[in-house]
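User: Structure tokens for both sequences below?

Assistant:
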Amino acid sequence: MKKINKRYLICNGDANSHSTHGGLPYNLFKNAKHYGLIDKAISLDYHKLRYWRSLWNLSQLLKHGKPNGFQWSEFYSNKLIKQIKYLKDQELSILSIYPLLPSYPWPEKWHVDFYIDATISQILHEYKLSNLISNSYEREIINREKLNYLRANKIICRSNWAIESLIKDYQIEKSKIHLVPGGANLDIKEIDRSKLLTFPPKPSINNPIVVGFIGLDWERKGGDFLIKLADTFSENNIPFEIRVVGPKKDTLPNHQCLKYVGFIDKFLNLDLFIKELKSWHFGTLFSKAEAFGISNRECLILGVPIICHDIGGISSTLPKSNFGKMFDANPSPLIVYSWLMDIFSPYEKYIILRKKLLKQYKSFAWDRTIKNLKKVLQK
């Protein structure tokens, strides 16, 4: 019988903390351990590298005139991996959700797979970060990342967007690449689904159309588009409300349609988080750059439909139907306004949409993701 190696999960940080990367590694490990796919999550502490970051930034400033990009350096990856040097002689399977960790050559007995939402090339260019580093350093990063992909067993992507970059920007063979979208960072076992059967009131002069925003970065996540959408409703004398979860209040504009909710810790205040989202008619995601869009999955698993646009990996967060509407990239507010007015006419059409969506909740859970990951990794 073939020996099955222990599989460890690593990320750029503490994979055991629910606050790391929005809870993705924590929820991935929690569910993967239940299904026997991952044995242990590794805690890596990049705060211990602050002294080295200062020295490295100084060297980059002197060398290239730009003191940035420590987190993408081979030095950074190797220093983090040294925190688990006690594992270097063990026969292990490693699942990494950070494309540059570990950095090849890794220990001979390690069998490495990657589970990514974006390539570094996409992060640098779509998130407008490439201007922070020199062209020569960018080429070095991309070359090291490509070598990682070539030496890995499998590269599993959370979106088709990432797959396109692997093929186009890194020339990775399609046979090595797999698609497995991530789950919502909510525990469906802790959700009382009977409470999801109450819906927000029918829009009227006294009850505004309510949409929600989730995220820390108001500008990148498309908050300015929601303001334009709100103005379109106001011009037509239709009450409209944007409920904002996540950003700091001083990063938001002053606008009569904005209702600031603040940050809600899903891990500590799950009931409050659910109560907030289910009060919305639609969740929204009109990001300027988006690798995946986990907030979509969190809305969908609670039966809250989505309006969004086709940027980055957003399309891979959605089912084929009965989820709301994905518009072409950068739609006009008037187009979105018209669609929303139509979906509420009559209101029963909107209620049917929510009821159909509620039946699909298992599609957005980590359970489904882990089962698909298991098929890929154990093939």
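Moving on to the next sequence.
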Amino acid sequence: MTQNLRFHIANPENNSSSGFVEFNTVDFIINADGRKLLKNSVRIEGDVNVKLGGADIVVGNDIKIDNRIGAHAFFDSWNITMPQSRGMIANLQEYPRYVKAVATCNYSKDDYYSAELLAEMRGGSEINGEYNIQQQTSYNVGGDADLQNPNFSIAPLFPLNEMEGGNYSFAKNGQIRVSCNLSKNADAIFGKDCVAGAEASYTITNLRLRYMTIPDDGRDNAIIMRSYYTIKNTIQSNSANIAVRVPSNAVSGVHVSFLEESSVTDPSKNKQALNTYPNFLELNYSFADAVGIVSYTITDIGDAQLKGVSAVQNSVDNSDGVGNYAVDMANYKANNGYILGLDFQNQLVDLTKDKFSFNIKSNSTSAVPKQLVYLYFHTLINL
């Protein structure tokens, strides 16, 4: 197989010599005549320059990205389309927060010293979030110092990298369009030195998509892809109910995270933080499966989080060898995690017709600070 393996680079269709900045949309085309996309081989690479108030950041600036997310923080959302066969197969919103949940539930501090995660600008300590975005000094032949922007190579947690079964045939399914929307500056970068009038910003240059292909063997093997669908809402009282339909007939679980709304307008705060829901009392999940109405009420916060960790771990491909992928609550707490959720225990539930209901209550004697709540429904795509 190695002899027939080819490495490809796709540059952005809308390439820009000056680079890409917040809110930009970047489009890539993946295609190779007579070949198949090797599953789970897609990477996004580039160089990043971070500035504070228009000047390059320096050692000592309290400016950082989330160390558990790394360069994934710069990509707010992904859209994956197969224009010649299936149309849009995934529209992944609130992507950095999803990466944060996966990292929190799976990786120990030591895992961040793997080459794979280091290449993604991740690290086991918060200080790594500062160092990894600072310019690096190199020396040329004459001995003169030269500042280089840091670079990254990430394997996005999207369906093309969460494939099981066969490899993707371009002859059968056509080309693939991958589009990403870049994150708002304040959603990717934060720190005490981020204040009004001295905002942090980033520019990504040399952005490219890499992938591998093998010859098309003509086999029509089934392909399963893991994906997710996000619902974002606001909780404004000590009791809240969220009822939604999900555009998928193959939902395997859900996980939930929170962010205090006041953090959204504070440039010093991490917008991907997994905040605690204050004074948890109980929660209830209710939905219809193939048999009838299913209702889970949970009153123990430890059990609620354990189920959330299990749901996240079962939502991703566990074969990369990085992370322990075992429910380790001590490790989870060390990661400052707070995730609720429910795994559907190997069931695939159709949520296109009947609503999924999430109800949570606090026993706080005072008003609960307004919370943003993010529900990530784990889905499967069958090609």
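User: Anything stand out in the second?

Assistant: The chain is about 15% helix and 40% strand.
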